[in-house]
Design a protein that fits this description.
The chain has 325 residues and is of the alpha/beta class. The chain folds into two domains: 51 residues; 210 residues, TIM Barrel (Alpha-Beta Barrel), CATH 3.20.20. It is 59% helix and 10% strand. Bound molecules: zinc ion. Zinc ion binds next to loops. One of its GO terms (molecular function) is hydrolase activity, acting on carbon-nitrogen (but not peptide) bonds.
Length: 325
């Protein structure tokens, strides 16, 4: 019985050993295979994932790069757009400038009541600054200084009639006015040996009050209509230096008057006087010329005035201003 029990136990032990090893083998293998498979799979998966990750990373990088590119591009675009805008602005500006220049920004310097001893000084300044002006001359003085009239004209400026006597009694009668006026016109015309354009300036301007004492309040309305019917243009001004007034030798005041008068105006006719007492003219004039040159104005004269410019003058009431009283 003991033997049987021992054999049984040994048998069981043996069976256990053999079976155990078999079990463990059979059990291990699939685990190993599985592990290998899993590892391969994992590795593959890892690789795949890695690839994917790399792909993703690549894609991300690519996207990032693209974004960056886009950003660069868009910043480029923005820069380009900005450039374009700037360019457009510049174009608009230059167009505006062109238009402006084409349209106007014109200045007509005019000097009344010469020629006098001041005339050569005015001419020197004009010459030095390479600009021209218009002189509305007094016939009586032109007869005395024909050389000055010639010099004015020969240096590219214009001389037109103002009056022969510059005595306000010319405003007593229509005939009396024309007698004086035609004499002035004829004097200048014969000195220069040219036919003058039908352009002049009334003594005191078209809206003068001096005529009230002679032909009365309704004299200028009547005279101006008659002058227009004869085909003449009478020229006034929209900027006065004030040099016929008490501050005529105050350089700063004269310049200030001109600059204030010119504010916001692109088409300017400035009134100066060619009279001996205006000794500050040689200091005032260079500054006035420089300012308007810097502001882009073209210096024009009535010598080569265009029909368009004359029409502009009529519109601005610088020429043939209706006098209604
Ligand atoms: Zn005058």
């Amino acid at each position: 019985m003991r033997k049987i029990i021992i054999i049984f136990i040994v048998g069981i032990v043996l069976m256990a050993i053999v079976g155990g090893s078999t079990f463990s083998q059979t059990q291990q293998q699939p685990v190993d295979v599985g592990a290998e498979k899993t590892s391969e799979k994992l590795q593959a998966e890892i690789k795949e994932n890695k690839d994917k990750t790399e792909n993703i990373q690549d894609t991300e990088k690519a996207k990032k790069d693209l974004r960056e590119e886009k950003e660069i591009d868009s910043s480029k675009e923005e820069t380009l757009k900005e450039d374009e805008v700037e360019k457009k602005d510049l174009e608009v500006n230059s167009d505006a400038k062109k238009k402006d220049n084409h349209k106007s920004k014109k200045i007509f310097l005019t000097f009344d009541d010469g020629p006098t001893t001041l005339t050569p000084q005015i001419l020197d300044v004009l010459k030095e600054h390479d600009v021209n002006a218009t002189f509305f001359a007094i016939g009586r003085l032109a007869e005395k200084h024909p050389d000055q009239i010639k010099r004015i004209y020969n240096e590219g400026n214009m001389v037109l009639p103002h009056s022969y006597t510059h005595d306000y009694s010319i405003y007593s009668t229509i005939d009396g006015f024309y007698e004086d006026f035609f004499r002035a016109e004829e004097t200048v015309s014969s000195i220069l040996d040219i036919q003058l354009p039908p352009i002049f300036r009334f003594p005191g301007g078209s809206s003068n009050h001096s005529s009230f004492n002679y032909g009365g309040k309704q004299f200028m309305p009547k005279l101006t209509e008659d002058v227009k019917e004869k085909g003449y243009y009478y020229i006034d001004w929209n900027v006065s230096s004030g040099d016929a007034g008490p501050d005529y030798n105050n350089k700063e005041k004269m310049i200030e008057n001109v600059l204030n008068g010119a504010k916001g105006q692109d088409f300017i006719v400035v009134l100066f006087h060619d009279v001996p007492r205006n000794t500050s003219m040689k200091k005032i004039l260079p500054e006035v010329i420089t300012v308007f040159k810097d502001r882009g104005y073209t210096f024009r004269t009535f010598r080569d005035i265009t029909e368009e410019e004359l029409n502009t003058m009529v519109q601005l009431k610088l020429a043939n201003k209706p006098i209604i009283r």
